[in-house]
Structures are given as structure tokens and as C-alpha cells.
Amino acid sequence: MKNLITTVLFMLPICIFAQNTDYKVSSYKDEGFKAPNTHYIGEAWLNGVLQADDETDFNITKATFKANSTLDWHKHSTSQVLIYVDGEGYYQERGKDPVILKAGDVIKCDKETEHWHASTKDSDVTYLAIYGGGQPTTWTEVVTQEFYDSVADQLND
């Protein structure tokens, strides 16, 4: 009995400590919040999975756009990596032809490179955006519905 009590008294602090953690856990599977229609057309949800801090100098944001939705032209002060996890989307850098990116595709956009990205006309798209924690996005030009439609027509031919 004495051994049992000693074992319990020894194990109790270990069990309590094991249950008391300071981990901050987030999930990219969370939908996030519906973004205000400020720099895009359509419907979008954003989930700030990881925010830059003193020890981590990058952000990870999950973005989900319903079909027929697009961001405006913009650029970042750091490079940006987009990891497409679901659906299909359009991507274009200034001066280059637009492309369709699909689930599993990864693309890097160099810092200060003007670009836009969107869902396709017929598919929602979800991607993880990894980018530096410095300056916020600089919005440069509105992507109109007419421009978006012309890209969709070009890529669906």
C-alpha cells in the first residue's frame, strides 16, 4: 500500500504537468471569417493560420474564394508562396500570361511583383499564402469583372 501511495504521489504531478500545456494550435481547415468586399469581387473567407512575431518572420493565411471571385492587382514587400490545396484558380503576374493553378500546385511570387489571383469561373479555390510579416499588401489596380471574364475566356479556349 505504501508503494502504491508513493507511486500515485510521484505520478500525479507528472500527469497534471502533461495536461497543462502552453501550445497554441490552429488549423488551416477552419473556414475563418468572411472578408469584407474591399479588394476583390465575389465571396472570400480568410483564416490567419499563423501570424509573424518576434520568432517567426512570416504569416500563413488560408484563403477560400467561391467560384467567379477575384482579388485585385497587388504586390507584397516580401516574396509570397501560394500552395493550392483545393479547387482551381487563375494566377497572373504583370506582363505575363495568366495560368490556371490546381490543387497540389505551388507557386512563388517574388517581392514587389504585381500580381492577382482568383478562383476560376466554375470552381472554388483554397490556397495557403505564406508571406513575410513586414509591410501589408499594396493594392495597385482593380480587377474588373470584364477583365476577369476575358481571362476566363482566354484560358477556357
UniProtKB/TrEMBL annotation:
**SUPFAM superfamilies given in the database record:** RmlC-like cupins
Q: In what residue span(s) does the Cupin type-2 domain sit?
A: 64-131
Cross-referenced CDD domains, in alphabetical order?
A: cupin_HNL-like
Q: Which UniProt keywords apply?
A: Signal
- Signal among the record's keywords? yes
Residues of the signal peptide = 1-18
Q: What protein am I looking at?
A: Cupin domain-containing protein
